[in-house]
Description:
By secondary structure, the chain is an all-alpha fold.
Amino acid sequence: xxxxxxxxxxxxxxxxxxxxxxxxxxxxxxxxxxxxxxxxxxxxxxxxxxxxxxxxxxxxxxxxxxxxxxxxxxxxxxxxxxxxxxxxxxxxxxxxxxxxxxxxxxxxxxxxxxxxxxxxxxxxxxxxxxxxxxxxxxxxxxxxxxxxxxxxxxxxxxxxxxxxxxxxxxxxxxxxxxxxxxxxxxxxxxxxxxxxxxxxxxxxxxxxxxxxxxxxxxxxxxxxxxxxxxxxxxxxxxxxxxxxxxxxxxxxxxxxxxxxxxxxxxxxxxxxxxxxxxxxxxxxxxxxxxxxxxxxxxxxxxxxxxxxxxxxxxxxxxxxxxxxxxxxxxxxxxxxxxxxxxxxxxxxxxxxxxxxxxxxxxxxxxxxxxxxxxxxxxxxxxxxxxxxxxxxxxxxxxxxxxxxxxxxxxxxxxxxxxxxxxxxxxxxxxxxxxxxxxxxxxxxxxxxxxxxxxxxxxxxxxxxxxxxxxxxxxxxxxxxxxxxxxxxxxxxxxxxxxxxxxxxxxxxxxxxxxxxxxxxxxxxxxxxxxxxxxxxxxxxxxxxxxxxxxxxxxxxxxxxxxxxxxxxxxxxxxxxxxxxxxxxxxxxxxxxxxxxxxxxxxxxxxxxxxxxxxxxxxxxxxxxxxxxxxxxxxxxxxxxxxxxxxxxxxxxxxxxxxxxxxxxxxxxxxxxxxxxxxxxxxxxxxxxxxxxxxxxxxxxxxxxxxxxxxxxxxxxxxxxxxxxxxxxxxxxxxxxxxxxxxxxxxxxxxxxxxxxxxxxxxxxxxxxxxxxxxxxxxxxxxxxxxxxxxxxxxxxxxxxxxxxxxxxxxxxxxxxxxxxxxxxxxxxxxxxxxxxxxxxxxxxxxxxxxxxxxxxxxxxxxxxxxxxxxxxxxxxxxxxxxxxxxxxxxxxxxxxxxxxxxxxxxxxxxxxxxxxxxxxxxxxxxxxxxxxxxxxxxxxxxxxxxxxxxxxxxxxxxxxxxxxxxxxxxxxxxxxxxxxxxxxxxxxxxxxxxxxxxxxxxxxxxxxxxxxx
Length: 1013
């Protein structure tokens, strides 16, 4: 049972560092010897200068990147210890990164924790950050680069490497091993490398770009001062004080004279030689290579300070699990030798710096001893290290994996077992993310090997490896591999999009001839690839693959193959798929039409007209530009008017249209791109297709400008709308006049543009799905039982339809032809047919169920047939029908003693009136009684009301207004149909009852009266 985990360790370390920072503040205020490093004061002063808008290099001895001062600007605004907390947080981050790296290499948990403790609990390292030194920030970036390499993120590693080299110049020594570790035998571009587990026995351009970018920005801000202080100074630095270097004494003796550039650079020669030897020996084990490089670089450097030791301390935990050195003897001996040599040097340094004694020679000898100690420790570490390349060689298990994954038989017999044998997943059924990446790398490497082998043999890719025996014909190796991967994806044993990635790689590596066979395989697996779980993960990869194939194909020579791809996409993707939709409405402004700017000699047409005509293409390719500036719109309209006037002045004859008709039929399937030579202008003006080409472009432009749903800034002004309307009429007239079949052509274009509006609205609504989910029968029954009553924007259905019947409603209302009253015998014919039993019309389809129809008929009868109208009280709406329209057997029913029934009804009405008056005196009438009395009263007064309204009669809007018979056909006895334009729903159920006497249709009658008036 472990005593502590990584979280607890990081938490305790963080608390301890906070305590040290607080203690440092106290010591700085109360003791003579300050806890804070003098470099931190330099950082803070530089940050303060930058916060005030000045150069940080105005602070003497600030020789770091301006980015460091920028990070410490909060020192001036929040607290002076901000930087200490930042560096201590980086210190903790180093511990976390050490843990992550070791876990990736499958180091046991307890050994990982011990290695992390070497960093987090090291007195030297935790005092560095809490005293305000920036080295933990650099160490964190170096370890993050190692993690990026282990994850296969080469570009990300290159970015951080360029940044860390700009931050501190020393990591430049890691460039060569980073290049060597990207050996194709270990790492393939774009894939995650295979990590070598622990056992108990193209980025160069990116990093250069980031380094140059950061350096260039800082140089732009601070010029040569930055370049000298932050970079060049460290190459030629000579420091005669407080450093462990063996060059200290020589620099001290010659400090009064200037060293030549050669003398300053010659000290790098031992470093350079040692670095080359270590890099070429240990590059593949790059954490260990980084460590020994850093130790050697520090030991042989011409300036050495204590903070430099942090550079290799952060890498030491990464190599401890692979060390055979025992702590009891060899390890303890190395620690004592290194600490003893350092203590010996510090003793002489104390005598020199604090006591002022002349011990320069002794101090130089101590530096030699310290170099020897560093060399001894380095040699001991190298001798006891188990060399372990971080990445496995890709060829190590390649052949075994190839044999296992391509074995004959059904994929379900061996595929999952092969995955378990070579990946060893943590879960038995589904791979984790890093395991999926590892398996994908192996598959892509195998696929590339098979394609290369097929190319060398000259066989077709999809047939390579196929063997034919006496009994059966086997698959090729690549189709067999794809079937196996497809089975694993379908059963969700591996990531579902892996099959699509392999198909994309295969098409990219193949010739167009082989791509036809590959696409035939894709078509054969369309049903499986289209399953929802596979489609969601791989649809974009499949779309990219098909688009890449279409770009590679010739539209003239590979028409059939292009059609197969387009048909596959149409079946593979749903109808409402947005991936192929230009949602933002971006125009192809790069499609520039080039034409002559200067008139050539001997031109036979007006060159100004030539330029005016072709200048319109600039506006056609970018319509939004017309609404941004009024001057552009004015220039466009003036140019277009010139072109239209010319077309009108030179109309084309039918003979020219017939001569062009045959050519037009032949080229109907091609997109014409007209030549812009001025010598062809005369012929083009006689070409009907050329006229139509320009005029249709105008209509498309106008249709775009008038399209609804634009932003406020794109809306047209009233003057622009009028100009567009006028120009559009001229263009349509010219199209109608252009032979051949001008009217038919114009009608087709208008139809296409009208349908285009639906497409525009669909895009601007966010491309909602066309497919609707299936309706549940139970829910459908419940919804049918609770249908809502429609509410019309103009009051009722009739007014809503009436408002749409004419484009100019005020003019239609004043049209004298609208006052037309149909003959009463014609109007009641449909109801008379309903009343005929021999017709066999069911009661629910009778016209008497239509309230508006009955109400209109009452008005017509009150004007033309008072006798029939009087029968309404006794017999209802059917009694109003003229008797001559009824069959004999039905007619007798409505002729029997009408006076007796009138008298009885009158007495009944009189009695009810008296009773109502008595109730009104005693108490207010109930709502139900009031409704009944009002209905009776309205029924008795209907003839008088309708007499006044009949003078206006039913509405008719000339030829476009439907007759009463047409109106009867439009009226539906059931208002539960689909809502029409102007209809709003309210929470009220539809009353489908029949109005037998005077129904309560007060709202409908009033609205219809307004419409007819």
